[in-house]
Design brief:
The chain is mostly helical. 77% of the residues lie in helices and 0% in strands. The chain binds hydroxy diiron-OXO moiety.
C-alpha cells in the first residue's frame, strides 16, 4: 500500500510526464511549421515516450492500491526562436524532470517504500539517457548553425529515429 505522501508525489509526476509529452508535441508543431520534418519526427517520438513514462507510473499507482488523480496540464510554449532554442529548452526541461525524479526517490526512501525505489531506478537511468540525447543534439546543432545544408542533413538524420 502506498503512503498518502508518496501517492500524491506520484500523481504529480504523472502530471509532469503528460506535461512533457504536451510540450514536445508543441515543439514538434513548431518544427513542422519550419519545414523540419526530421526534427518533428524526433519530437513526436519523444511525445510518445513521455506518455509511456506517465502510464508506467499510472500502472504502478494502481498496482499498489493507490488512486490515480489526473491534474490539469497548462498550455505549453508554442513559439521558439530557432531549433537551437528548442533543444536548449528540451535539455533544461529534462534536467528539471531529473530533479523531480530525484525528489520522488527521496520520498520513497523516507517512506521506506522499497517497491517504489526499485521502480524509480528505471526512471533514474532513463533520465541519464534523456539528458545525454538532448545534450548531444544541442551540441551538434550549435556546430551546424541555424541554416543551410548542414541543418537539412541533421533534419534527415533525426528523421531516422524510430526506424530501427
Ligand atoms: Fe523526458 O523523461 Fe519523462 O519526462
Amino acid at each position: 500500500m502506498l503512503s498518502k505522501k508518496l501517492e500524491k508525489a506520484l500523481n504529480e509526476q504523472i502530471n509532469h510526464e503528460f506535461a512533457s509529452s504536451y510540450l514536445y508535441l508543441s515543439m514538434a508543431a513548431y518544427a513542422e511549421s519550419q519545414t523540419l520534418p526530421g526534427f518533428a519526427n524526433w519530437l513526436k517520438l519523444q511525445t510518445k515516450e513521455e506518455m509511456g513514462h506517465a502510464m508506467k507510473l499510472y500502472k504502478f499507482v494502481n498496482e499498489r492500491g493507490g488512486r490515480v488523480e489526473l491534474q490539469a496540464i497548462a498550455q505549453p510554449v508554442t513559439e521558439f526562436k530557432s531549433p537551437v532554442a528548442v533543444f536548449e529548452q528540451v535539455l533544461g526541461h529534462e534536467r528539471k524532470i531529473s530533479a523531480n525524479i530525484n525528489s520522488l526517490y527521496e520520498i520513497a526512501l523516507e517512506e521506506k517504500d522499497y517497491a517504489a525505489q526499485v521502480m524509480l531506478h528505471w526512471f533514474i537511468e532513463e533520465q541519464v539517457e534523456e539528458e545525454a540525447a538532448a545534450s548531444e543534439i544541442l551540441e551538434t546543432l550549435r556546430m551546424v548553425g541555424e541554416k543551410g545544408h548542414a541543418l537539412i542533413m541533421m533534419d534527415r538524420q533525426l528523421a531516422r529515429r524510430g526506424q530501427g
